[in-house]
Write a structure and sequence with these properties.
Length: about 250
């Protein structure tokens, strides 16, 4: 049985705990034991028992406490927290020198497939204009979403690999912004209601449009992916891993 600590006691943290405690292996035995769940009092993490993995889908305010726990215990870290600064991402990668660390802006298998398809479409439609639109519930704190940034990376990376020049994001448009630059990628964030997450990547060409869409009906898809990744990450050598490396490598 894998011992885990859950960072966050809100909606996502509570869902992670519920599904982790319900998980069973082929023999019907529990897969996880939750040894601690940390809410607003981050000092509780200082005294939390050592675990095999820490699962963090909270927010950027918990970063230092999470990093300190991983350094102390050397446990695996499965992080789905978005909105980190470049400095925090650099520190997150550095944690991989002493522990197996996985960070992803999205833990859905469907989104993983979407990323692959976006890269393929970019390669095959190099002259098409690309626009990314993401929609989330009205309580989401960061914009654009981590998933939208990952999709943007696929577009920019595919163009760079093909030698198409430098492509840059444009986050929303307003005023007299002029004609669209051929090497810009529009990124737009919509917020409202209780939407779990919708991501659309539009490819606009002469007289035709291709749209790739992923629609999340429940946050459970992210938790199932994170728990599956946790099982695969535990016991790995120290390193900073991607979701693809852990799930498909």
């Amino acid at each position: 049985m894998h011992k885990i600590v859950i960072m966050g006691a809100g909606r996502m943290g509570s869902l992670i705990r519920r599904l982790a405690e319900a998980a069973r292996d082929e023999a019907g035995e529990p897969v996880f034991e939750v040894v601690a769940q940390i809410g607003f009092d981050l000092t509780e993490l200082e005294g939390a028992p050592a675990a095999d993995a820490l699962i963090d889908f909270s927010n950027v305010a918990t970063f230092e406490a999470v990093a300190a726990y991983v350094r102390r215990c050397g446990c695996a870290l499965v992080s789905g927290t978005t909105g980190y600064s470049e400095a925090q991402m650099a520190e997150l990668r550095a944690l991989g020198e002493g522990a197996p660390v996985l960070w992803s802006g999205n833990y859905s298998l469907g989104v993983a497939a979407l990323r692959h398809l976006v890269a393929q479409a970019t390669r095959e439609l190099p002259a098409f204009d690309v626009e990314i639109v993401e929609t989330h519930h009205n309580q989401k704190a960061d914009a654009p979403s981590g998933t939208a940034k990952m999709l943007l990376d696929e577009v920019v990376g595919a163009h760079e690999a093909a030698g198409d020049g430098v492509y840059a994001p444009v986050y929303g448009r307003s005023g007299m912004c002029g004609a669209r630059d051929a090497r810009e990628v529009g990124v737009h964030a919509l917020r409202g209601g209780t939407v779990a997450g919708v991501h659309e990547v539009h490819f606009f060409g002469p007289s035709e449009e291709l749209t790739l869409t992923h629609r999340a009906e429940s946050r459970e898809i992210f938790v199932h992916g994170a728990l599956a990744a946790t099982q695969k990450l535990i016991g790995r050598d120290p390193g900073f891993y991607t979701f693809d490396q852990i799930m498909f490598g």
